[in-house]
Specification:
The protein has one domain (2-129). The protein has helices spanning 2-30, 37-46, 50-92, 95-114, 123-129. It is mostly helical and 131 residues long. The radius of gyration is 19 Å and the shape is elongated.
Length: 131
């Protein structure tokens, strides 16, 4: 019985880790690419003309809108999956373990905000802004 509980906990923690990695990766790939230093650096590196920069901005902004519209349809389901897994994890932990996990979650949120990883644009709002 104890072994199956440990396996379930490891599975849920693994799912949380995979979800976090996928979320971070998706944010980096599909995140808000409004004129950023990275975009400007790419333009400079490619030595784009002003006309090419304007065309590239339009293309990248259009891509961002399409991705935001797509994510807006999926994001509520992803949030539901995250919340369900979190509730299941919290139920299986002791009060002390839940306190320690919540402290760890708070550190993750703080670190991700500091690194700019948590500044995800709300896909629904982003999709509406593209209309």
């Amino acid at each position: 019985m104890q072994r199956s509980k440990q396996q379930a906990l490891m599975f849920l923690l693994g799912a949380l880790l995979v979800g976090a990695i996928l979320g971070f990766s998706a944010n980096r790939v599909f995140g808000d690419d409004a004129p950023t230093p990275g975009r400007q650096a790419m333009y400079d590196d490619l030595q784009l003309t002003a006309a090419q920069r304007a065309a590239m901005d339009s293309l990248l902004d259009q891509r961002h809108c399409q991705i935001s519209r797509t994510l807006a349809t999926v994001e509520p389901k992803l949030d539901s999956i995250r919340a369900s897994a979190r509730a299941q994890m919290d139920r299986m932990l002791t009060p002390d373990q839940r306190t320690r996990l919540e402290a760890r979650r708070a550190r993750w949120r703080k670190e991700s905000r500091k690194d700019g990883r948590h500044d995800r644009t709300d896909p629904v709002k982003a999709a509406e802004a593209c209309k």
